[in-house]
Amino acid sequence: MTENQMNHDEEITLNENQEVSHPEASNHSTDEDVLTEAEVEIIPEDDKTEDSAEEIQSEAVDIQAYEDKIDQLEDHNLRLQAEIANMQRSNSRERSEAAKYRSQSLAKKLLDAIDNLERALAVKADNEEALAIHKGVEMVYQQILAAFKEEKIEVIDPLNEPFDPNFHQAVTTQPVQEGQQADHVVQVLQKGYILDDRIIRPAMVIVSA
């Protein structure tokens, strides 16, 4: 064996001994490599978690916005329903009043005719012809009053009754006479008429005072 070969074998043996005598150095390098790889893997997981959290938070905000919008729509719907109910009640009341007082306008137009019939009936008939006319006028007058009664129109004829400004209109007053009471109707100049609880025309009266 030559000297060069011997030297080469000694170097190989020495290198092998060095590798065996320092195994920790090799292991330490490997651990660092593993740790570095683990860190590289963990970082993306953290980023992914943060992204997921942001997405969840964004979705929560969207859901809250939708819920707020739904609440607003429900409140608006309730308000509309209340307005519709009020309109229905108002229309129903107006229709009821229109039906209740439908005869008022016609009655007002007939009052002058009734007054004329009453004046005609106040004239005494002194012959058969006048009696026949009087009877005809009386029939027409009673028919109108019957029609008024069917429509719930009543006559206000308050002779000798206490004066009531809600139903009577005092034209004048006169001193209390024997057999009379103060603040009573002593004469009816023109009869009044009432439809249910609505005055069509108050009675024109003279009151004792």
From TrEMBL:
Keywords: Chaperone, Coiled coil, Cytoplasm, Stress response. Residues 1-11 have a biased composition (Basic and acidic residues). It is found in: Cytoplasm. GO terms for biological process: protein folding. InterPro entries: GrpE, GrpE_CC, GrpE_head. Pfam families: GrpE (PF01025). Its main location: cytoplasm. GO terms for cellular component: cytoplasm. GO terms for molecular function: adenyl-nucleotide exchange factor activity; protein homodimerization activity; protein-folding chaperone binding; unfolded protein binding. Residues 56-127 form a coiled coil. Residues 14-28 have a biased composition (Polar residues). Signal peptide: none annotated. Residues 1-35 are annotated as: Disordered. Belongs to the GrpE family. Homodimer. PANTHER family: GRPE PROTEIN, GRPE PROTEIN HOMOLOG, MITOCHONDRIAL. Participates actively in the response to hyperosmotic and heat shock by preventing the aggregation of stress-denatured proteins, in association with DnaK and GrpE. It is the nucleotide exchange factor for DnaK and may function as a thermosensor. Unfolded proteins bind initially to DnaJ; upon interaction with the DnaJ-bound protein, DnaK hydrolyzes its bound ATP, resulting in the formation of a stable complex. GrpE releases ADP from DnaK; ATP binding to DnaK triggers the release of the substrate protein, thus completing the reaction cycle. This is Protein GrpE. The gene is grpE.
